[in-house]
Input
Amino acid sequence: MSSIFQDVRDYVAVPRTASLRLAPDGSRLVAVTQSLNPDKKSYGTALYDIPLEPGGEATRLTRSAKGEGGAVFTAGGDLLFVSARPDPTEKDDNDKPALWLLPKSGEPRRLATRPGGIAGVKTGGSSIVYVSDVLPGDQDTEKDRRKEREEAGITAILHEGYPVRFWDHDIGPAHPRFFSVEHGELTPDVGDALHRAAFDVTPDGATVITTWRENVADGEHRNRLVALTAGERRILASDDGFDFEGPVVISPDGGHVVCHRERITSETVSGRVELWLVDLKTGEQHPLGEGAASIAWAPDSTSLYVSADHGGRRPIFHVSLGGEWSRITLDDGAYAELNVAPDGTIYALRGAIDSPHLPAKITRDAGDAYGAYVTLPAPTPVLDVPGTLTEVFAVADDGTEIRAWLVLPVSERPAPLLLWIHGGPVNSWNDWSWRWNPWIMAAKGYAVLLPDPAMSTGYGQAMIDRGWGEWGPVTHGDLMAITDAACKLPEVDETRTAAMGGSFGGYMANWVAGHTDRFKAIVTHASLWNLDQFAGTTDVSSFWQREFGPPGSDRYLRLSPHHSLDQITTPMLVIHGDKDYRVPIGEALRLWWDLQRTGAEAKFLYFPDENHWVLKPGNSIAWYETVLAFLAVHVLGEEWRRPGSVA
Output
């Protein structure tokens, strides 16, 4: 059994492969890898050359205290990356991420800097385009104005629109703009039109195709798809009933672009994401099927390769421009970061519930049929998980089949059961997660149930529709049905069970706590508690209120977990980060106070410096150790032992 899962400190030290890029001629494969820094308090990133065949070792290309990321190849095969590393050839005080070029041979050199830093690099022909946040006003004085603002101790931001923050950071006072290494600024001050923009550059380097945000009435906005050529903006796709979102990927011949079209929701209209194709010559456009996680064009521009959620997996599919899908990978993997070589070979990151993300190669034979994947060397090791993986099925009240992964430990049988509810809610348990990893629980003897209830992806639109506006009741029914099925297995001890979840999973953990006493303990992370309060404080209130209506609507009263406070008898562990703007800390503070004032048995694990997730290695250790200690008391019957990792 791997000791990596026995001691969380060993687990957080495992290098993690984050992205994968293939050179245009297919001769080089580069990965961005995240590793524990020497101080063990944070993670750093570096670029690695990945062998194109099994055998050999990955070669580290970059080293700096600031780390490197955003790897992109130029048309000539040189490697671009973004880093805040110092430039040894210049003396300056720039500490923002800059654009660097690493030639095929030689040392890296800095290509471009901006006072607001650089991100989101794309190439097209000989053009290199990037995004930088720019303060309003004269660009020539921006650096000085930033310094003056800092020295004066000014952090205030005056807003005149929505939103004001996103995920874990404030928006403004600077706004994103496009720049070209060759031609300088490509867009003037366009406000927040490029907020979270997804973009690509045509093969001739002349045009940037990007999502474009336009504010409309009452705090709402719409995302269009536009083309920017020589400073002129042309709308490619626009519909008030839909948002056009990334990724944006242009075909190698420059004839088409593909993106996502997302339906604008309401209390009666559910979310729907489609893969959307636009002919750049004729303007004709049509859907290609449901949305995809990763998109890559075939070298001849006549079709696409995509990875998409499907029945608890994320296979690779071949998609024609007419919208015909054929599955390529038949294993249980979840594929991402697709790259297609000129000869049709596919390189991707492959993860699975029982495997971390590793570079994989899928080749085709003389008859153009793809075979099984092979794993390529990487800094991330192949891990021996402490248990086995199987599937469980159940039938919901409305006749819908519900499926789940079940992680079974190698030790104790029958094992105590931990129901782990995924977030989203439009999401699926189909991939490896470094943040919420069931194998750490399995190493301690737990069976872990990972269900895909209502609104999970990979089961068709009807699965999403059936839970829309019925978060608590329908999802709760699905969760109880699949838990009942798991508890009937001889490997599971139905008398020792617990439930946990984060985000939407935390909402459901709170709902479960108020609607059943079958579990011995409940862990709720970054959870929604008082929906009326949450609706106006989250960073995406406009999106939220489309589904739930304006504050005070009936849906808030019917679906808010806090209305069942007096029914909670199960011990609860509340967990939240203060930098969480998606589900603000007020939810946890209100939940904690409500549990305190009613005398409920509970604990509160608080992270002042974490966002919706727990990302710092030390805090990750504290998270796992506290959760396991809490479960040990209430599920295993052990005495409470305060983890040494928490104060």
Summary: DSSP finds eleven helices and 38 strands in the chain. The longest helix spans residues 617-634. The mean pLDDT is 96. The first strand starts at residue 16 and ends at 22.
